[in-house]
Amino acid sequence: MYKHILIPTDGSQLAAEGISRAIALAKALSAEVTGITVTAPSQVFADTKRTTAMAEKYLGQIKDAAAAAGVRCRVIHAEHERPYQAIIDTAKKNSCDLIVMASHGRRGVSALVLGSETVKVLTHSSLPVLVYR
Predict the structure, then answer these.
(1) What are the pLDDT tens digits along the chain (133 aa)?
(2) Strand partners of residue 65
(3) CB atoms within 10 A of CB 41
(4) Theoretical Cys-Cys bridge with 26: which of 30, 31, 109, 110, CB 3.0 to 4.6 Å?
(5) HSE (CB half, 13 Å, CA atoms) of 65?
(6) Could you give all domains of the chain from N- to C-terminal order, each with its CATH number?
C-alpha cells in the first residue's frame, strides 16, 4: 500500500489533528513519514529567527507524534512563494506515495475565494491526497 507519507503542517490546531491521523495511518501501514512546513521567502527575510523558531515548533509536533508511535520520520522546512507547489515538489523529490493534510472543509464561494492550500494540492498533484476535515 503506502510506504512514505508526506504530512504538511501550518501549525494550526486543525493541522495538529491531521498530523495525529496521518501518524496513526503510517503506523498501521508500517510507513515512514516526512513532515513539511512552508514559509514564504518574504517572511524569512523579515524575521529569520522567528520564522525558524516557528518552523521548528510546527515540525516538532510531527517528530514528537512519530516518535511516540514508533514511526520513522524526517522533517523539512521549505521556503517557497507557493506553499502548495513546495508540498508537491517535496513529495516527488522524497518519493512519497501519499500526501495527508487537513482542510477546513469550506465550500462554495468561500472555498473558491480563499483558495486553500489543500485545494491547490488536490488540483495540481498527481499523487494521491488524503484530506482530513
Answers:
(1) 899 999 999 999 999 999 999 999 999 999 999 999 999 998 877 888 999 999 999 999 999 999 999 999 999 999 999 999 999 999 999 999 999 998 875 555 545 444 589 999 999 999 999 998 7
(2) none
(3) 11
(4) 31
(5) 26
(6) 4-132 (3.40.50.620)
